[in-house]
Amino acid sequence: MLLTNGTSIRYAALFVFGAAGVLYKFFNILTEIKNKDFRAQLSKHGIFIMIFFWWISGLYSMGWSGKLYPHYCNLIMPSAALLSGYFAEYFFRQSNKRLMLTVFMLIFIVFSPLPSDVFNFGGLILIRNTPLLRYAYGKMPRLVEIGIKRNFNYDLIYIKDNKIYLDDKYYLNIGGFSYIYRRAPAVKWIMKNTSDGDFIYFWGAETTLNFLTKKRSPTKYTYLYPLMERGYTTEHDLQRFISDLKEKRPKFIIDTSQSNDLIPPISPEDTEDKNGYDRKLLLPAIKFIRDNYKYELTIDEWDVYKITRRQPVG
After folding, report:
1. If you count DSSP H runs as helices and E runs as strands, how many of each does the chain have, helices first?
2. Which residues on neighbouring strands pair with residue 62, listed in sequence order?
3. How many CB atoms lie within 10 A of CB 167?
4. pLDDT tens readout for residues 188-215
C-alpha cells in the first residue's frame, strides 16, 4: 500500500529527533568521562545505553531483508521516541524563546493530520481515521459517497444508510470502515462478466478486489511476494501455485503488475530483480498462463487474460 506524504514525513521526523537525542547524549557522556570514572558514567547512563542498542538493532533489522519499505520504520519508532526525549532535554535547556517556538510549530505540523491523509491514486480512496479528520469532514459516509461517485464515474453504485448498493442490490456494508479502497473499472467489469461461482485470480497483490467483488481466489497465494523470495521459495511452492490454477481454472486472470512495479508482468517478459525480489522465480507460472490463457482486454491499466483450454496444460 502506498504511504501518504504525511506518514513518510512523520517517520523521517521521529528518526531525526531520535538521532539528535543520540548525538546530544553521546556528546554529554564524553564530556563527563573526561573528568570522571568511566565505569561510573556507564552505570549512570545505563538506561540510555540500552535504548541506544535497541535503536541500533532496529536499524539493523530494517536492512536485514534488503527490502526498503517505509513501514519497516515501525521497528525503530519506540526507541526513537524515547531517544527524542534526550533531544527534548537539551531543547528545554535553551534560552532562545524564538527557537523553541519555531521547533514547537514544526513538530505540531509534522505530527498533525495533513491534507494527504485523505487522498486518491487513480480510483484508490484512502481515508485515514483520525479524530481531527472526523471532526473536520463530519460524517464519514458522506465523504465516502463523494469519493465513490467521483471515482467510479457511473451511477450504478450509491450509498444509503452506510451501505453500498449496486444495480439496486445490496452489495456491501461500509459502516465503521476506516479505510475505503476502490478500483472502479475493474469492479464494474468483473461484476458484469462473471457468475457467482467463477474464480478470478489477481496477479499481483490486489486482495481488496477479491473482497469487493466477492470472488474467491483459486489459490492461497493471493500475494505473489512469497513466490519471489530467493532462498525461501521452493519448487514445491511454485508447483502448488500452478496446480491450484490448473485445478480451480479461474475464468480470468487479471494482471495488476502495472500498479506494483515489484510484480513481473505476464507480458511482455520483465524479470529484472526489484527491491530484493527474484522475479525470475515466477517464469514457470508465467509460461503456464501464456499457454492456457489469451489476452482479452485492458481495464484501465490492467491486462485481462481469459482461459482458453478446458483442460489446462503445463
Report:
1. 11, 9
2. none
3. 9
4. 888 889 988 899 999 998 887 888 788 8
Instruction: Write down the domain spans for the chain.
Output: 5-112, 117-182, 186-307
Question: Checking DSSP bridges between strand 302-307 and strand 118-121, what pairing results, if any?
Answer: unpaired
Structure-derived torsion over alpha carbons of residues 278, 284, 288, 290, reported in degrees to the nearest 10: 60
Burial class (CB in 10 A: 0-12, 13-18, 19+), 85: middle
- From residue 182, give the alpha-carbon distance in Å to each of 2, 121, 211, 253: 14, 10, 11, 19
Question: Does 312 sit behind a cis peptide bond, omega within 30 degrees of 0 on the bond before it?
Answer: no
Hey, what's the cell of 290?
A: 501464456
pTM passes above 0.85: no
Looking at per-residue pLDDT, the higher value among 59 and 116 belongs to 59
Which three cell numbers, joined as nine digits, stand for 166? 449496486
The answer to whether the CB of 73 falls within 8 A of the CB of 81 is no
Neighbours of 7 (CB within 10 A): 17
